[in-house]
Specification:
about 450 residues; globular
Length: about 450
């Protein structure tokens, strides 16, 4: 015969919840904690301890588990998950729970937004690394780098920002910065301003290049940036821009190299520097510039003049001839003629054009700076990549993960400038640099501040 449990004992199993028949609820009521509504379940060992403790003359247990918060956490751990009480529950603790360790209660009651700020291991300013910043507002891009010095001559980037703003859009036709272009640039610069104000910056240099140099309303735009973004930009000349680009790429010139033509294909201009290190070499590569030029043509201005969306072979050849004629007028182009034909000479490109070629050459599914920066490409590989991009239509260029919609109408203009440079200074090797003006600014700021010199002094002492 099947025995039934007594009516009042149903549902009081070890792993079942206690049901309250009068209230009809199996969960705690509103405003009442689980510890106040139902007594905690205990195991057989705890029941034996409690029974022995209730006998006359029995010694008191060493530590009684009376904290409902701890009991709740212990039950949850048996179910395979860890639970921390929130602030509301800790405020409703019974007087007996007030004796719980203060640190545990305070830690559980602190919300995520109210967590204390994590401070560096050394609070003394002498042990904190100084922070430097460099901002480059070009014709096409707005870029920011924030870094701290590391080993002598090197630094570690701790924050960065980059956005295509096309500040020079329509500039070649009108001679002025358009209102939509200035609006895009100001919005990007506001983000940069917030990043800079949130850090303790030792030194910073914020520069603007060709678009602000050549625009009639360039100075007015600089004033607007100061009012709305809180940043005062410095319009640098072409010579300074070329020197900073060289300073940023110094580590990519090998010790055995004797001559380098470094070029930076920008949005509104292209800087070219001839570097001779055949006799001696100082830490600053910019000291070895024997000749330089800045062509008033870049990917944006050239694409606007010839069209960048649908580029036929004839249009591409016309762009190459245009840039090549400008280079022929450069009087200092032969300063490295004694090194160009030798094995110790190479080209060094720092621009979106050459990094795009490198990404396509590596067949990257997603652009990876670590694989591109410092990559060597021989003459045949460059020829193949240029021919490949020229053979793609606009949609195919958009679909490439290393080009995208933002650069699909500009990349062939950049390839035309590259081809003109290769015709003027033939070389069997091209080295790709995903660095340039910003890195040059940071290197010069840190060197002038003496951070690497002080670091060597600390090591010696």
């Amino acid at each position: 015969m099947r025995l039934r449990r007594p009516k009042g004992s149903r549902g009081v199993g070890r792993n079942k919840k206690v049901r309250h028949r009068k209230s009809g609820a199996s969960a705690p009521g509103a405003g009442v904690t689980a510890a106040e509504q139902a007594p905690p379940r205990v195991g057989s060992r705890q029941r034996r301890r409690r029974k022995s403790a209730s006998q006359p003359g029995a010694p008191a247990p060493a530590q009684a588990v009376t904290d409902p918060l701890k009991q709740k956490k212990r039950r949850k751990r048996r179910r395979g998950r860890k639970v921390f009480a929130n602030g509301a529950a800790s405020e409703r603790l019974s007087p007996s729970a007030a004796a719980a360790p203060v640190a545990a209660v305070e830690r559980s009651a602190v919300s995520r937004d109210a967590r204390p700020e994590i401070k560096p291991a050394y609070s003394d300013d002498r042990f904190e690394l100084p922070v430097f910043a460099a901002l480059d507002l070009g014709t096409n891009n707005c870029r920011l780098l924030v870094a701290v010095p590391s080993r002598p001559g090197q630094f570690r980037v701790i924050d960065a920002f980059s956005r295509i703003v096309r500040l020079g859009e329509g500039l070649s036709a009108s001679g002025r910065l358009s209102q939509p272009a200035m609006d895009r640039a100001v919005e990007a610069l506001k983000i940069c301003g917030e990043k800079l104000r949130n850090r303790k910056i030792r030194k910073a240099r914020l520069v603007a290049t060709e678009a602000c140099r050549s625009a009639e309303n360039g100075a007015e735009f600089i004033d607007r940036v100061e009012r709305e973004a809180g940043l005062r930009l410095e319009i640098i000349d072409r010579r300074t821009e070329a020197r900073l680009a060289v300073s940023g790429c110094g580590s990519l010139v090998d010790r055995g190299t004797k001559g380098v033509v470094l070029f930076d294909i920008g949005g509104g201009s292209s800087e070219i520097a001839l570097i001779d290190v055949s006799l001696q070499r100082s830490p600053r590569l910019a000291n070895h510039i024997v000749s330089w030029t800045s062509l008033p043509v870049g990917v944006v201005s050239l694409a606007e003049r010839y069209g960048g969306r649908d580029v036929t072979p004839e249009v591409f050849a016309a762009m190459v001839d245009d840039v090549a004629q400008r280079l022929q007028a450069f009087e200092g182009r032969d300063k490295l003629s004694h090194l160009v034909s030798g094995p110790d000479f190479h080209l060094l490109g720092t621009s979106g054009t050459v990094t795009t070629l490198a990404g396509v050459h590596l067949d990257l599914e997603r652009y990876d700076r670590r694989r591109v920066d410092g990559l060597w490409m021989d003459r045949d590989n460059v020829d193949k990549m240029v021919a490949k991009l020229c053979g793609w239509n606009f949609d195919e260029r958009v679909a490439s993960p290393c080009i995208g919609a933002d650069r699909a109408d500009l990349v062939l203009a950049g390839c035309a400038i590259l081809e003109a440079i290769r015709v003027t200074w033939p070389s069997t090797r091209l080295r790709v640099a995903d660095r340039g003006l910003r890195e040059g600014i940071l290197s010069e700021l840190m060197a002038d501040d003496g951070v690497w010199r002080r670091d060597r002094q600390r090591v010696q002492t």
